[in-house]
Amino acid sequence: MIVLGIDPGITNMGLGVVEQVGKQQRLLYADVITTKHSTPAPERIGRIYQTVLEVVRTYKPQAIAVEEQFFYRQNELAYKVGWAMGALLVVAAQHDLPVYGYGPPKVKQALVGYGHADKDQVAFMVRAVLGLKETPKPSHKADAIAIALTHCFFAKLGQPSPV
């Protein structure tokens, strides 16, 4: 199974592609799509769309897993992240890919075994599970990989969370 994990954002969107064969996972790709605040919204969304489209065409994932966001008082940020989510949902629809969502506590539980673990613990487990020499940086990249690994974990248990 190949999973595209996404840490959604409009300024920085993390992408991580993980392949699971049996009980082993390996990292195929990781990057961060960066757009500038000064760039008009249509161009930012177009860049996100094109990059996600290229990743899907190149790695042919069977599923997309995204981190579910929790915005308490950040309405403008939620609105703009929604633009980015719209772009990736269009790619998913065009390629008939299921999309699954996992909140931060589920990611922490899957990777660390504790739903209140800190980001450093999650990043360390990403490195350990995949046998990487270094922790992926920036954090958006590590988070995207963590999301993909979380989906592998829950899919194996038969408990994925469709969006």
Automatic annotation (TrEMBL):
Q: What does this protein do?
A: The RuvA-RuvB-RuvC complex processes Holliday junction (HJ) DNA during genetic recombination and DNA repair. Endonuclease that resolves HJ intermediates. Cleaves cruciform DNA by making single-stranded nicks across the HJ at symmetrical positions within the homologous arms, yielding a 5'-phosphate and a 3'-hydroxyl group; requires a central core of homology in the junction. The consensus cleavage sequence is 5'-(A/T)TT(C/G)-3'. Cleavage occurs on the 3'-side of the TT dinucleotide at the point of strand exchange.
A Gene Ontology molecular function term for this protein is: DNA binding
Q: Which residues form the signal peptide?
A: none
Q: What is this protein called?
A: Crossover junction endodeoxyribonuclease RuvC
Protein location: Cytoplasm
Instruction: Output the SUPFAM superfamilies linked to this UniProt entry.
Output: Ribonuclease H-like
Q: Which UniProt keywords apply?
A: Cytoplasm, DNA damage, DNA recombination, DNA repair, DNA-binding, Endonuclease, Hydrolase, Magnesium, Metal-binding, Nuclease
Among the GO biological process terms of this entry, one is:
DNA recombination
The record's listing under InterPro entries reads: RNaseH-like_sf (IPR012337), RNaseH_sf (IPR036397), X-over_junc_endoDNase_RuvC (IPR002176)
